[in-house]
Amino acid sequence: MKKKKKIDSVTVHSFNRGTDLFFNIIVGIFALSCLLPLFFVIVISLTDENALATYGYRLWPKVWSFAGYKYLATMGGELLRSLWISVLVTVVGTVINSTFTSTYAYAISRSSFKYRRFFTVFCLVTMLFSPGMVANYIVVTNMLHLKDTLWALILPMAVSPFNIIVMRTFFKRQVSESIIESARIDGASEMRIFTQIVIPLAVPGIATISLFAALGYWNDWFNALLYIQSDNLVPLQYLLMKIQSNIEMLSQNASAGTQFGGSLMAIPKEATRMAMVVIATLPIACSYPFFQKYFVRGLTIGGVKE
Amino acid sequence: MEENNVAQSPEAIAAAAKKKEGFWYNIVHNGPFLLFALPGAIWMIFFFYIPVFANVVAFKEFQFSPDGFLASLAQSKWVGFQNFKFLFTSDAAWLITKNTLLYNLGFITLNLIISVFFAVVMSELRHKRLVKVYQTSMLLPYFLSWVIIGYFVMAFLNPDKGLLNTMLHTNINWYAEPKYWPFILLFIGTWKGIGYNSILYFATVMGIDPTYYEAATVDGANKWQQIKNITIPQLVPLMTLMSILAVGNIFRADFGLFYTVPQNSGALYNVTSVLDTYIYNGLTSTGDIGMSSAASLYQSVVGCILLLITNAIVRRLDSDSALF
């Protein structure tokens, strides 16, 4: 029976062989175009610096070399610091974001919460209007005095109103009032109900918003661009941005240059820079295929309204 | 204070039960939920409600005071609509508005056509496993930051070493030639989001009742007729919704695309300046915070009006899809 259904769906949705081949080629080319740049950057990072200077970036280098990665290893300090900042901000930010987003969403999803309407509107209003870059900048720097602190990288993205609305719908669907009522009759406190009953039921939803939050924090450079001037707090993405506009930064900060190959000239700047791009990209490129279903589910997790 | 209430809630509730429904009774009774909502609410106050009121700086000659925001506000003098007057009499206002609108219109159109095309085509391909591979590949750019995408673009467009100049045997200084950039930006911006959007449409196509297709096949309809008369009409509601929502955001440009991909190159400002990059550049480099805040408020207000209009339209068409 099951087999028959499968065959049916193939015949219902399928081109004949010629058309199939044609469209496979078109879609295939586009899919390749999405992978090619990453492949290209990996290849550049593995190309010998002299070959880069002579032949430019090539899809297949004349001379392979690990010099870029070796130099990164000697450079150590700055890169590791940026990596550490990125990891720290991502972990702390994701925990804060998913916690606050879920608790708020849970509160406004419960019909027994008297002020749920107020807090729902309070949240919806934030999606209606955007305070704008300048106003946010002034409040963060002049009122909260967060400039050049880690919090400037974490707090601006600590809650996502849109995810609150999505999670509210999710909680309403997944966690029925009767389960909570029975737990309440058994004497469980609201906190206990939330941690021991609601969260286990809502794992798929929480996983989705956490992944989006983690992705947002890892990829964020905008808050660093606005708020970070100290060299000690530069996250990886922002470091890459600074190096793109000024490749000389690589040699300025690195006393290691003299140890490497004897002279400053020998720093494989191009390859090193691309090696850093690879390091910033690989965690995502390697993990997203496994989390893909959660991301895609985010699209359908809750029609925004109940 | 709230924590106190939770700790003593049983007695407090018992005490309050007599005079029921009083304000404090409600606070105590809803204590746990209020606590749950508190962090989010505080965040909204500091990162939304206060900044909304901070927009008054657009009507001031704003000066930063080290004593905090209120001191800064008090010390800056009112200038009425002067900032707006400067903004709208400059050439920049028209340019950035035009660029923002045109690019976003381009993105909306291209995104719609290409995503639907890929979704329909992928739903009809014979090897379903291959479709999974395609979709996973197409999602990669969506998950990468604009900084990384900026490096990808640079690998192709770098004037000395880039692949494009090598392959075409040209010597074009890409980052100083405005005429290519509308196409580059449209291409990159669309390319990054196609994977995600096409999966959205793909999911809808897969949800169409297969009996429609069976009936059509029995009636002798070929593939194209099926796509034209079944698939596309079933996608129209989603297409409308997505386009209308995008129109609601048409005043917001993707800062990352317009700032990092052209590497903020001054030679390209004519074609890469959009509201967001203009506001940012005014805020940081030129230090003209007045004009910048005026542009920012202009963007927010027009954006909000557009959002309200489009939401009203969506609500009329399909009330379940409306934002509010």
Beta-strand percentage range of chain B: under 5%
CATH superfamily of the largest domain in chain B: MetI-like
Q: Which topology of the largest domain in chain A does CATH recognise?
A: MetI-like fold
| Gyration radius over CA of chain B | 27 Å
Helix and strand sequence of chain B: HHHHEHEHHHHHHHHHHHH
How would you describe the shape of chain A? globular
CATH architecture of the largest domain in chain B: Orthogonal Bundle
The helical percent of chain B reads over 70%
Question: Can you offer a commentary on this structure?
Answer:
The complex is a heterodimer of chains A (306) and B (324). Chain A has 2 domains: 20-64, no CATH class; 74-252 and 264-302, MetI-like fold, CATH 1.10.3720.10. Helix content of chain A is 74%, strand content 0%. Chain A is built from 17 helices and no strands. Chain A has helices spanning 2-12, 17-45, 49-55, 67-75, 77-109, 116-128, 133-143, 151-154, 161-174, 177-185, 190-201, 203-219, 222-227, 236-245, 249-252, 256-259, 269-300. In chain A, helix 12 packs antiparallel against helix 17. Chain B is an all-alpha fold and 324 residues long. Helices cover 74% and strands 1% of the residues of chain B. Chain B has helices spanning 2-7, 9-17, 23-29, 31-54, 69-75, 82-89, 91-124, 128-143, 146-157, 163-168, 181-206, 210-218, 223-248, 255-260, 269-272, 275-284, 289-317; strands spanning 60-61, 77-78. In chain B, helix 8 (128-143) crosses helix 11. Chain B is globular. Chains A and B meet through helix 1, helix 2, helix 5, helix 6 and helix 7 of A and helix 4, helix 7, helix 8, helix 9 and helix 10 of B. Chain B: Belongs to the binding-protein-dependent transport system permease family. Chain B: Its main location: membrane. Chain B: Keywords: Cell membrane, Membrane, Transmembrane, Transmembrane helix, Transport.
